[in-house]
Amino acid sequence: MAGKTEHQAMHAWVKEMAQMCNPDQIHWCDGSDEERRKLTAEALSTGELIELNQKLLPGCLYHRTALNDVARTENLTFVCTDKEEDATPVNNWKPREEGYAECRKFFKDSMKGRVMYVVPFSMGPVGSPFAKYGIELTDSIYVVLNMRIMTHMGQNVLDAIGANGDFTKCLHSKAQLDLEKRRIMHFPEDNTIWSVNSGYGGNVLLGKKCLALRIASWLGKTEGWMAEHMLILGVEYPDSHIEYLAAAFPSACGKTNLAMLVPPEGLKAKGYKVWTAGDDIAWLRLGKDGRLWAVNPEAGCFGVAPGTSMSTNPNMMKAVEKNTIFTNVLLKDDGAVWWEGHGDAPPAHGKDWTGKDWTPDEKDKDGKPVLGANANSRFTVPIKQVPCVSDKVDDPAGVPISAFIFGGRRARLAPLVYQSTDWEHGTYVAATMASERTAAQYGKQGEVRRDPMAMSPFVGYNMGDYFRHWLEMGRKVPNPPKIFHVNWFRRDENNKFMWPGFGDNLRVLEWILARCRGDVDAVETPIGFVPKPEDIDLTGLDVGKETMRKLMDIDKGEWKIECDGVEEYFKGIGERMPKELFDQLASLRKRLG
Ligand code: GTP
Ligand code: SPV
Ligand code: MN
């Protein structure tokens, strides 16, 4: 079937890619329900997808990835530019032509015997001045069905692109799912993304991390806006006034959960409501009112399953009751799903994420429990199914942001919350973020690594230029968000989390918003402003004074050691590292004494 578009350059590109990949057929997706039904039936017949119990989970599907393909592979992800310094030093870099040449070999005949699907998609509402369009060519129905949920997809996108419009050229083939030949390549100078030999979300849903962060960050730098790894949420006050926040935490560090938190019992009387406008990515621009406005470019959530339960995230539990694709969770014998931290007791028997029989008491050869669900198992769900979705979720203008919140997993060092003194200091705080590695990416779990703005894996250009862009945006925005840092993950001497997290995080947001309005004083410390103990409302919470003291503790000795790590990191960025951030480091050292 030929695509319904007059865009000759698009037709020529599809033809050229098809000549290389050699599919048996080409199918242009129109985004219709009939198409979804046909593709689902096809994927069920080949086993690419499994139908879940339609009484318990209507419209829900199940998928297992290959065993070697369960998380983003940052070591195989490249930014390919002509000049090395335009991409490095944080990214893996290859010269543009070399990147193409290497991948052409892997794409050659990769779709033989398969259908090439042409998926027109929009990041941001179709027709919005902020929307960016893309076409993803893929040989995976799983990818097509996920893109249907995660993006605005279909014929209306082709109509919006028209005969001459710009679009990001995205090519994906699962090929043989060969780890040795897996590559996730970005060519920002050509507005092109190539991904081969993977079938895992972040590597293959090319609108998400590849376009909406890596390519978009490059575009944002050029065009004067920002693409960030941030959730967007609104806190509504009893007088119906809503304040919006955006928060950046590294992968699997709590964005989805914070974006849809439920106020804890103790704060219920205050009458707050929380509205979710985004759970992973924000695009931010200067508004006419001099504030920074945020749009969520995505239409769905690709969320972490383990730990999601009626007690931690009831909104998400309700959202995933229908029309959801579950990946690498445990498949129960009744055709429903389960994962570690689900809340329900584990089933007596099921098939684990690898497809093997599973029982809860199973142990591996080291005597450790065998996980039923992969630690990075996920669900894909339309954001509109989240009960507390914001009515602004596809407002082309977005929402005005009062505060930026940064945070990571730090067992020590970082207090529960502190506020930067101004934008430049806030940029320093965000640029020096660090977090323990999670299952969302390959590598040694738990190792602390620097992850500026939670964007380390996602900045599509030179990191020094990225910091400079942040500093420049601060100068351009007359009334920028106030910048805070939080840490929900501080541990005690028994290695237990000291802060309850989840809904109780609203207690910290309450202080943050009070600071934004200028309603509450704070204590000045060498690292920034911290709350007076009485200003965090602990009503109904079983966290004692001593624990709060430990959660807020700032150990000057440890912070001095941290400064040495920051200095080393900054120096590693090289020539393009802005001097302002070295100055911030020097002042912090002075304040620490
Ligand atoms: P990505 O989708 O990878 O970008 O992750 P995310 O930042 O959206 O993380 P998510 O909210 O899915 O949380 C990841 C894991 O952290 C889940 O297992 C959560 O249950 C857990 N988590 C989230 N918030 C908190 C919290 O406040 N405290 C604690 N202890 N755990 C949390
Ligand atoms: C992340 O890893 O930050 C995610 C999941 O949000 S993925 O889309 O796979 O990158
Ligand atoms: Mn993410």
CATH-defined architecture of the largest domain: Alpha-Beta Complex
> What is the radius of gyration?
23 Å
Shape: globular
Overall residue-averaged pLDDT value:
96
Q: What is the topology?
A:
Elements: H1 8-21, E1 25-28, H2 33-46, E2 50-51, E3 61-63, E4 77-81, E5 92-95, H3 96-107, E6 115-123, E7 132-138, H4 141-150, E8 152-153, H5 155-161, E9 168-173, E10 183-187, E11 192-196, H6 201-204, H7 207-223, E12 226-228, E13 231-236, E14 242-248, H8 255-259, H9 265-268, E15 273-278, E16 282-286, E17 292-295, E18 300-304, H10 314-319, E19 325-327, E20 330-332, E21 337-338, E22 350-351, E23 357-358, E24 378-382, E25 399-407, E26 417-419, H11 423-431, E27 434-436, E28 448-450, H12 463-476, E29 482-486, H13 506-517, E30 523-525, E31 528-530, H14 545-552, H15 556-573, H16 579-592
Helix pairs in contact: 11-12, 11-16, 15-16
Guanosine-5'-triphosphate (GTP) binds at residues 249, 251-257, 279-280, 303-304, 306-308, 312, 440, 488, 497, 501-502, 505.
Describe this structure in words.
The chain is α+β, with helices and mostly antiparallel strands. The chain has 3 domains: 8-47 and 73-223, Phosphoenolpyruvate Carboxykinase, domain 1 (3-Layer(aba) Sandwich); 228-296 and 390-573, Alpha-Beta Complex (Phosphoenolpyruvate Carboxykinase, domain 3), CATH 3.90.228; 301-385, Phosphoenolpyruvate Carboxykinase, domain 2 (Beta Complex). 28% of the residues lie in helices and 23% in strands. The protein contains 16 helices and 31 strands. Strands 1, 4, 5, 6, 7, 8, 9, 10 and 11 form a 9-stranded mixed β-sheet that branches. β13 and β14 form a beta hairpin. α11 crosses α16. The radius of gyration is 23 Å and the shape is globular. The model has no long low-confidence stretch (mean pLDDT 96).
